[in-house]
Design a protein that fits this description.
112 residues; mainly alpha
């Protein structure tokens, strides 16, 4: 799984994405579960986006629940993360091509 995660979200991409992530929404009730690992969620979301699988078919081996992955995808899409990430990686051709692909896949999912 580590090799797949590294291919889906390489370190360079994560370094560009991390500062672009929107802050988690406030939890007025306090307590509750700790937030999921953002990189792990991004790996799961990128897998769903680029593989074309349905959200409900996200393999449990990613360690992220389907509702969590979809909720974070929605939040990130509303924050225009995919476009921003594509722009942030534009100086690196190979990485720019990958993030552009992710952005295009995300745009198709948002407009379904």
């Amino acid at each position: 799984m580590d090799a797949l995660a590294q291919r889906l979200v390489p370190d360079e991409m994560w370094a560009a994405a991390r500062p672009l992530l929107p802050a988690p929404p406030p939890r007025p009730q306090g307590g509750g579960r700790a937030a999921a690992d953002a990189r792990g969620v991004m790996v799961a979301v990128v897998y769903v986006l680029t593989s074309g699988c349905a959200w409900q078919h996200l393999p449990p081996s990613f360690g992220v629940s389907v509702p969590t992955a979809h909720r974070w995808f929605t939040r990130w899409s509303e924050a225009n993360l995919w476009q921003s990430l594509s722009e942030a990686t534009s100086p690196t051709p190979a990485l720019a091509a990958w993030t552009r692909t992710i952005h295009e896949c995300a745009a198709r999912r948002v407009h379904r």
